[in-house]
Hints:
This protein is of the alpha/beta class. It is 40% helix and 20% strand. The protein has four domains: 2-86, Barwin-like endoglucanases (Beta Barrel), CATH 2.40.40.20; 93-137, no CATH class; 165-244 and 255-402, 3-Layer(aba) Sandwich (Pyrimidine Nucleoside Phosphorylase, Chain A, domain 2), CATH 3.40.1030.10; 414-494, Aldehyde Oxidoreductase, domain 3 (Alpha-Beta Complex). A six-stranded mixed beta barrel has the order 1-5-2-4-3-6. Strand 3 and strand 4 (44-53) form a beta hairpin.
Amino acid sequence: MLKLKRIAIDTHPENVALLSRSCTLYRAEDFQALRKIEVVTDGKQILANLIICDDNAIVAPDELGLGEQAFRRLGLTEGEQVRIAQAAQPRSLESIRAKIGGRTLSKAEIEAIIADITAYRYSPMEIAAFLISSASFMTTAEMLDLTEAMAKVGNRLDWDAPIVVDKHCIGGIPGNRTSMIVVPIVAAHGLPVPKTSSRAITSPAGTADTMEVLAQVNLSIEDMRAVVEREKGCLVWGGHVNLSPADDILISVERPLRIDTPEQMIASIISKKLAAGSTHLVVDIPVGPTAKVRSHAAAVRLRKMFEYVGDKVGLIIDVVFSDGVQPVGRGIGPVLEARDVMAVLRNDPDAPQDLRERSLMLAGRMLDFDPELRGGAGHARARELLDSGQALAAMERIIKAQGPSTTTHDLGGLVEVVRAQADGVVHAVDCYRLGRIARLAGAPLDKGAGIELLKKVGDPVTAGEPIYRIYACVAADFRFATTDAAQDNGYMIGPA
Length: 496
């Protein structure tokens, strides 16, 4: 048997193993053809992609090295003994070949594919084959089966409450950080809202990135449960609590390929909510010319698909169409977005009103699920909780329960003012373009990087007047962002 060694390399999301070419117990060349091995010990097993190592200082001839992800998933300590074997090809790959050929998959086939993906038996190339073949065509039955299969794998929370609410925005609008306002409003009312959120992959910030400016978000599932039971709500990173883990693996391959079909989006969202134990869900679909959903017809189709799957799995869904014409609030990037959120919760006179009103609308729709409120009274109740300071107090309790951030995050010290190129009125703001510039500036990796908006649609401007500021922490990122903004600043300015 080989001695286990932890190798300090990040191979997210894959499992990677390193074997010395001069290994004394196994001939490395025997494993090179398939490149995937089983790592086995008493009662535990993982699959890993194999790398042959020629430096015995990294992996000795009697050792097997595991990257950080594989080491953590195997759950052993360094020095323990393991065996390796050639990994058999997953039988479910035959179903993917059939899907590529145009066949509709059965429920059992989809469950087998998701189980193998979650066990890291698939390479990224094989996952891509599944995603692309599914993107070509997917029936409503397959979409439902995919949702249920993803929800079944991993942890699943169950709450001792008849109503557990949640909200989800399908994304595409920078600065749309409503969850951090909605959750404390709903929690202050008393409805449980176990909010798991994503980190950004191609956007300048996810809710988890922005919440991390204020509080810890990498909670265990036990800690998450304790926070919700005590404070009625939480805002944590979903990837750390292993709810519908197949979703995170699929997303890691979807995003570089820019695959985001409605069917796969719905399976992703609803499987997460089912795993979190939600019974009622508000879905926010922003519609706009540079948003993810760009027409009313596309939004209606998406709503009907959400309602179909929700009905089948027993999740009550309220779909809201919102304004996706421009970014929400003034900040794009974690620190700037957190500043907007806290300004709204504190009822600051200069808080961004569009973020405030959108949050109240969504919180009101969630509170309308409460049978104790009269129909349509949710919005008034949400406004009362925000105006009275009860929502702010709930947020402060949630931050304390999750653990305040141990790092002080400041705005980036490199600042560029982007100015209007003509007199007139702001006719449009390109959400995709602004998100790209903020990302180039370093967000969300650098919490203080991003964009501060100074003008919004409908505002009059004069040539040379500032329309937004770019903040960066690293000189190279600053150059990338400012160069990109100089080519196209994302603002369309025209006559009044």
